[in-house]
Amino acid sequence: MSNPSLLILPGDGIGPEVMAEVRRIIDWFGTRRGIVFDVSEDLVGGAAYDVHGTPLHDDTMTKAQEVDAVLLGAVGGPKYDVLDFSVKPERGLLRLRKEMDLYANLRPAQCFDALADFSSLKKDVVAGLDIMIVRELTSGVYFGEPRGIFTEGNERVGINTQRYTESEIARVARSAFELARRRGNKVCSMEKANVMESGILWREVVQKVRDEEYPDVDLSHMYADAGAMQLTRWPKQFDVIVTDNLFGDLLSDLAAMLTGSLGMLPSASLGAPMANGRPKALYEPVHGSAPDIAGQGKANPIACILSFAMALRYSFDLGAEADRLEAAVQKVLAEGVRTADLMQAEGGSPVSTTEMGDAILGALEASL
Ligand code: NAI
Ligand code: MG
């Protein structure tokens, strides 16, 4: 059997800086755990534009379709603000998401105990928190027709349409149930079936997929507004939450901020299963290219490192190794190792991007 394959797209700004630390971690898994990836690296965003005149070369797109998983840093920067919309760095990322048809966006909210003080919620509400929001990403009200601003009589009307087909609901539900089986085996589906027909269909289809294909997974339903309340009141009641594009946009941002800083947040976008049974997958930190700190060695590499941990768990079935990597991050944070973005008023001196990488590698080594 060939090695699992990874395409690495560092991108712009702090993208290459944080990705350099991930590369060291990938190498560590190869030499110390015998888990060897076929890694290829290519350009995306402004870095690709500088060389090819396009933010994503066709060859790179083809490669992305062929590998087991894509790991991306970040794209964009002030240098590219003047470019035409069609070749802006973000277009490279959007093309990847669209052509790979990545319909399930995964955003974890995980509390690293040493950072529990960062939360706006009480410590015991967030300590140990580990939930996953699955947001439908390619349909719903952001895409439905009709849409536009029209004139009706003597005033204008703005229209967007919430539209979901049964198959669109079923496939994102399957993503959520598959994830739940690798986690706490519990899914809560959120919609507004009380006031929206699309919500009635959503609830019905999710229940049917559960009953026919995932009878072992625990499923509950909640109205999305009640879900927002429950997320802030007692988030630990949830394991996996599955919801539509609009509610997911709001709920995933809300859930992410329960635990903390942009420099800590990973994400994944998954599509249909490939011939080998693995879903098409793109892993990336939630943050952007951070031009204000780029080139200064200040960036926190943890969001990108945790994105790789998600790849281990969800693309490569290496949950125990993902646990090992997450535990290493927990350990260095508990020891007080902090990049500048994780410093609070009490002071102390921050470590650099590379020093954070060193500390995590040290913790991995200590885990053997
Ligand atoms: P940003 O996420 O790049 O930065 C926001 C703030 O958070 C900045 O102060 C930055 O220094 C800080 N920050 C972000 N990541 C950090 C990390 N790992 N360690 C320490 N501090 C970190 O968002 P912003 O400033 O709105 O956008 C900057 C550029 O990035 C723009 O060109 C934007 O279009 C692009 N962008 C790209 C994204 C992507 O590639 N997925 C997502 C968001 C923005
Ligand atoms: Mg949002």
UniProtKB/TrEMBL annotation:
Catalysed reaction per UniProt?
(2R,3S)-3-isopropylmalate + NAD(+) = 4-methyl-2-oxopentanoate + CO2 + NADH
Which residues bind NAD(+) per the record? 77-90, 288-300
Main subcellular location of this protein, as a coarse class: cytoplasm
Q: Which UniProt keywords apply?
A: Amino-acid biosynthesis, Branched-chain amino acid biosynthesis, Cytoplasm, Leucine biosynthesis, Magnesium, Manganese, Metal-binding, NAD, Oxidoreductase
Q: Which Pfam families match?
A: Iso_dh (PF00180)
Q: Describe cofactor binding as the record notes it.
A: Binds 1 Mg(2+) or Mn(2+) ion per subunit.
Q: In which pathway does it act?
A: Amino-acid biosynthesis; L-leucine biosynthesis; L-leucine from 3-methyl-2-oxobutanoate: step 3/4
Which residues bind Mg(2+) per the record?
D225, D249, D253
MF annotations from Gene Ontology: 3-isopropylmalate dehydrogenase activity
Domain Isopropylmalate dehydrogenase-like: where?
Answer: 5-360
Q: Spell out the residues of the site Important for catalysis.
A: Y142, K192
Localization per Swiss-Prot or TrEMBL: Cytoplasm
Q: What is its EC number?
A: 1.1.1.85
Highest taxon above the source species: Bacteria
**Necessary cofactors:** Mg(2+); Mn(2+)
In terms of SMART domains, this protein maps to:
Iso_dh
Query: Gene3D superfamilies in the record, alphabetically?
Result: Isopropylmalate Dehydrogenase
Record-listed substrate binding positions: R97, R107, R135, D225
Q: Which family does it belong to?
A: Belongs to the isocitrate and isopropylmalate dehydrogenases family. LeuB type 1 subfamily.
| Record function comment | Catalyzes the oxidation of 3-carboxy-2-hydroxy-4-methylpentanoate (3-isopropylmalate) to 3-carboxy-4-methyl-2-oxopentanoate. The product decarboxylates to 4-methyl-2 oxopentanoate.
- Its quaternary structure? Homodimer.
> Protein name, please?
3-isopropylmalate dehydrogenase
**Could you read off the lineage of the organism from its UniProt record?**
Bacteria, Pseudomonadati, Pseudomonadota, Alphaproteobacteria, Rhodobacterales
